[in-house]
Design brief:
The structure holds two protein chains of two kinds. Chain A is an all-alpha fold. Helices cover 66% and strands 1% of the residues of chain A. Chain A has helices at 17-39, 43-51, 56-85, 95-129, 138-157, 185-213, 226-258, 271-305, 312-325, 341-353, 355-369, 378-401, 403-409, 413-443, 449-475, 492-522, 561-567, 592-608, 612-630, 641-650; strands spanning 584-587, 636-639. Chain A is globular, with a radius of gyration of 25 Å. Chain A starts with 16 loop residues before the first helix and ends with a helix. In chain B, 62% of the residues lie in helices and 0% in strands. Chain B has helices at 21-42, 48-70, 82-105. Classes of the chains: A mainly alpha, B mainly alpha. The A-B interface holds A 132-134, 136, 138, 212-214, 217, 236, 239-240, 244, 270, 272-273, 276-277, 280, 327-328, 331, 337-343, 553, 582-587, 636 and B 1-6, 82, 86, 89-90, 93, 96-97, 100-101, 103-105, 107-111.
Chain lengths: 654, 112
Amino acid sequence: MPPSHLSHWGLLITGDPLIYGADASIALASIAIVYVLTKYKKWKWLWDEWLTTVDHKKIGIMYLIAAILMLFRAGTDAELMRTQLALPNLHFLGPEHYDQIFTTHGTVMLLFMAMPFIFALMNIAVPLQIGARDVAFPYLNAISFWLFFFAAMLINISFVIGGSPDAGWTSYAPLAGSTFDPGPGENFYLMSLEITGIGSIGTGINFLATILKMRAPGMSLMKMPLFSWSIVATSILILYAFPALTVVLALLLIDRVAGAHFFTITAGGNPMMYINMFWIWGHPEVYILILPAFGVFSEIVSTFSRKTIFGYKSMVFSLLLISLISYFVWAHHFFTMGADASVNSFFAIASMLVGIPTGVKIFNWLFTMFRGRIRMKMPMLWTIAFIPCFTMGGMTGVMLAAAPADYQYHNSYFLIAHFHQVLIGGTLFGMLAAMYYWWPKVFGFLLDERWAKWAFWMFNIGFYVCFEPQYVLGLMGMQRRMYTYPSGLGWTDLNFISTIGAFIMGLGFIFLVWDIIYSIRHGERDLTGDPWDGRTLEWSLPSPAPHYNFAVIPHVTQLDQWWELKQQGRQDELRPKASDIRPIHMPKNSGKPFLFGLAFFVVGVGFVFEWYAVAVIGFLGVGALLLARSFEAHPDYHIPVDEVVHTETALGRL
Amino acid sequence: MSNDHDTPQITKTFHQEKFPWQGIFGYILSLVLTAFSLWFGLAHAAQYGVILYVIMGLAIMQIFVQMFMFMHVTETDEGFPWQSLGLVSGLVFVAAIVIMSIWIMTFGAGVS
């Protein structure tokens, strides 16, 4: 639908039963939320405790909930696609609809599931691990969250209003230009990524500053837990990679809405420049997604093997080396563009080099487990599952990195299988391991192991059944983004098996969610604050931690401080003494970050539908909120000693 | 937020004027530089090659305006110039991205 023909009602009336179903379920869910909040008089609670919070722990919880919801949303997309591909010549989804679904699947999984999951863990764990009371810029942290949240709203309403983006999660020009893809769909993609991208840059700045400047006294960088180190590497990547995305999406938006020709070859532009700039961000982005998982596995392997991590220094060095090399590999996403042999050789070798520091990490984890007393709890189980899965993904990655061979693999299901194996087997397994690991610290109860094991086995078995056949399909010539295929190519059996696997994974997800619901009531309560016999500072605190985290900032002398103190029977050194407690300096809650996100949402809607008056109103809101914040005289307060003493006594720590 | 009650207030370590003349001057300068490069490109004020180099020159001037007027590049904190770390790594990455993009995007020009 070209935008000039859109009436306001035309945005809503599509004639597609799936979309009417989505309309109805969104309406019902909204009514249910409003009803429950009103009936139990929870509006004020919602505003005071959540919408205005600047507490990193609560922001972490909100990111976590959003990530799980988005995993459901984009997972549903995946099930729809696999259903369509189960057999040849199916018409469960039409070609346009299939295009929209694979686009939102990829976009939502990467930007609105994996990224917030990582931000959730950063928020939940980093300040507690380094002995800080919050992040360096709590207000910015809230802004980052609300920008993400409203960007996620924007991309999700596209399905029911105006049409989803349909040019793939990479949104390549010229396909995504206004000539071939008119209508608001692609604008939804561009605006929501722009908005969440600003939030991500904020998070990168925030956590780099937090870790460099707010570590507890005595915690030198080389005594810092490896998860925090992985967030240093991730934050550096975010800082240098995301601006490239912001710029390239802005250029494409200007092409689309203002008629410029940055990527139009007939008017002197160059569509390959879009692809080049997209991957300048895109490749570091996949390391942004994997490095935090590496950090998580380092914590878990060490904790559940009851051993100091093997080769701590080489772990740190390899993290930083991976983040450095990751800037010099982006052209491997478009070897087939036909750059000269020297370019392809350089990027092929650089890509293969990433395998070396990654291999170092894999071996370090194995050596840490070697002769350790391993406890097979859920976090460790996901870690053990990660190692073979990710290694296979990494090996097929090296195959793809061989430029001449890539001409064969490029954009085939071989590639699809590869990146799902590293992103699910690496990032998602890592995030889930971390969820089980830090869950008791956040919520004060453990997730039930029995249901978690069902989820684990379903998800793992489903994964291999779903994705291993896709390697073969790729070698047999099946290309990505095909909405259907003819019979008689020998693809049917493998596709059918793959679909079965996808549904087994879906079952795994249902068990995962059921486990959470079950454990809210029946999960074991964490009364000690240290359910895993942990090693780092966060386990010295009660679960959940009081909102100021540390009543007295601890002094650190070594790596794995908490573990070493426990070994020497000196745990009490990390308990606060009443005489040491001083008033605690904390940031005040603020409603502005929420309104800031809302204002950006209005800007987004304005650009999506090219209603510029709406965009101007949104920008005025943004400006007004920036001004209001600038003249805020007292954004902070002190918690009096009495209150801290009272809280700590109630927790049994004084 | 400062981490601990006994660390000094973070604002005191920064250089502060009564009225932010430097910031306002830098802001105007950056707007002028942007507007001029936009006009120069849109108005086709010179040959293509000339426009390219003028705009690149203006962009480099813009970098210096940002660094000296806004980004505290001359200040140090506890004797350690933290921002120089970011600056050096930023320069490395920017140089890599620009040089390698030109290399990649000249396609087969290197061989043919």
